[in-house]
Design goal:
There is one protein chain. The chain is α/β, with parallel strands linked by helices. The protein has three domains: 122 residues, Rossmann fold (3-Layer(aba) Sandwich); 173 residues, P-loop containing nucleotide triphosphate hydrolases (Rossmann fold, 3-Layer(aba) Sandwich), CATH 3.40.50.300; 155 residues, Orthogonal Bundle (Helicase, Ruva Protein, domain 3), CATH 1.10.8.60. 45% of the residues lie in helices and 12% in strands. The protein has 20 helices and 14 strands. 31% of the residues are buried.
Length: 467
């Protein structure tokens, strides 16, 4: 994040000292002439940190500090004081001062304290951060295509290359982008997400690049765009295929020059950001049809990661259901969420047009309708519970297969049938042995360790088979 600092210190020597110890990179400094100048600037532009001398607030300094803290950005306040007056400093702290520094401190101590506050400001800014930090392990999979994708994501996370994430709505494109950011070398910087398809065209340019006061009607105060906010971090441009062509030109310039110019400004600011874009469109096709700039497409797709839809990852469903229940249940006050075999079979048969997002919504609904955290078929939506079952082996021999399968590659169908067969086989033997792991493994002709791995994969618990 590019930090904007307002410096409100009257004495030339002290102002020169403070100016000298401020970070050279990642900061923009405004020198203010006095309290009146501060309010003039605050009315027109945003800022992150105010460094002020106690003497600059002639009347009611604590009230003025509280007023600064009430600004939309809630700026941090560093106050320089001449003497150690405990009672007065208590009032300053109560008003919202973040740090009180003595003017007599050595320059290296002064620098360390100011740098620490600026670093805290950079670290804490991410208004869209989820409660739990995302991880690449959240996408754990037994499907080869997903395993290959995760291996590539882990490798490119350590670089600064642009990434294009493709996939249907709901497959978890933003979650993957956050996970890549969280394990990369920019993880201590901000992650700023903007949905290019959810903004009116008239506002998108301001959201991306910012604007100065007076740049257009209603722009009473300057605003930073997502590139300034994401300085030293990552910008996530969701639904990039929805961006108008005239803004594609400006985005291409930012990616090429690493500089951004606010609307209404005459100067550019250098920014250091990684760009991760996402789309549910076929951008290569959009380029061919003239809807998306070819040069921008090549800039964004240095590395392309394509998340497969959930219907192509049926083997992962038991694991995904287990993780989703563990995440949703505490929020609903459920202590131990469980799912019946019949409900799991119904989930595996369903085609999941809404992908992972739909899965989470359906499981939340099921927990609300179920008793004591138990999810059964009657808790599922009617259309899902009535999904077409997998055909019997005899039907397959006679050539009677669902017509929808003919629209999909043979490898996917083979994997589905294999997984369904393995799960049904182990389910039957665990029922016959009363959940005895050693006897089930011996009957199946596999190692005990392998059986445990398959049971985890298919969400089979031995406790459910004991008499």
């Amino acid at each position: 994040m590019l930090i904007r600092i307002m410096l409100l210190i009257p004495g030339t020597d002290l102002r020169r000292r403070v100016r000298a110890v401020l970070p050279r990179q990642d900061t923009v400094v405004d020198l203010l002439r006095g309290e009146k100048h501060l309010w003039e600037r605050a009315a027109r532009r945003s800022f992150d940190v105010l460094i002020a001398h106690e003497s600059t607030f002639a009347d009611n300094p604590a009230d003025n500090i509280a007023l600064v803290r009430s600004l939309p950005e809630t700026p941090s306040v560093i106050l320089m004081v001449e003497e150690d007056r405990a009672e007065e400093q208590s009032r300053f702290l109560a008003a919202g001062v973040d740090r009180i520094l003595y003017t007599g401190l050595r320059d290296e101590v002064l620098a360390a304290a100011i740098h620490a506050e600026i670093a805290r400001r950079q670290r804490d800014y991410d208004p869209t951060a989820p409660e739990q930090p995302p991880l690449l392990s959240d996408f754990q999979s037994v499907v080869p295509s997903m395993q290959s994708l995760l291996h590539m994501a882990d490798r490119v996370a350590q670089t600064g290359s642009a990434i294009l994430i493709q996939g249907e709505t709901g497959v978890g494109k933003e979650h993957l982008a956050r996970a890549i950011h969280a394990v990369g070398h920019r993880r201590n910087g901000p992650f700023v997400a903007i949905n290019c398809g959810g903004l009116p065209e008239s506002l998108m340019e301001s959201e991306l690049f910012g604007h100065e006061a007076g740049a257009f009607t209603g722009a009473n105060r300057g605003r930073r765009g997502c590139f300034e906010l994401a300085h030293a971090g990552t910008v996530f441009l969701d639904e990039i295929g929805e961006m108008p062509r005239h803004l594609q030109v400006k985005l291409l310039r930012v990616l090429h020059d690493h500089q951004v110019r606010r609307l209404g400004s005459e100067r550019s600011l250098r920014v250091d950001v990684r760009v991760i874009a996402a789309t549910n469109r076929d951008l290569a096709q959009e380029v061919g049809e003239g809807n998306f700039r070819r040069d921008l497409y090549y800039r964004l797709s240095v590395v392309t990661l394509t998340l497969p839809p959930l219907r192509e990852r049926r083997a992962d469903l038991p694991h995904l259901v287990e993780r989703a229940l563990a995440r949703v249940a505490p929020r609903l006050g459920v202590h131990a969420a469980r799912i019946s075999e019949a409900a799991m079979e119904a989930l595996i048969r369903y085609d999941w047009p809404g992908n992972i997002r739909e899965l989470h919504n359906i499981l939340e609904r099921a927990l609300l309708l179920g008793e004591n955290g138990y999810v059964d078929v009657d808790c599922l939506p009617p259309g899902l519970a009535a999904a077409t079952p997998l055909p019997q082996l005899g039907d397959l021999a006679d050539g009677a297969i669902p017509a929808a399968w003919l629209d999909r590659p043979l490898d996917q169908i083979r994997q589905e049938i294999t997984d369904a067969l393995e799960r049904a086989y182990l389910h039957a033997w665990l029922g016959r042995t009363g959940g005895r792991i050693d006897r089930t493994a011996q009957a199946a002709g596999i190692e005990t360790r392998t059986l445990y791995q398959k049971m985890k994969r298919f969400a089979l618990r031995k406790e459910n088979y004991k008499a």
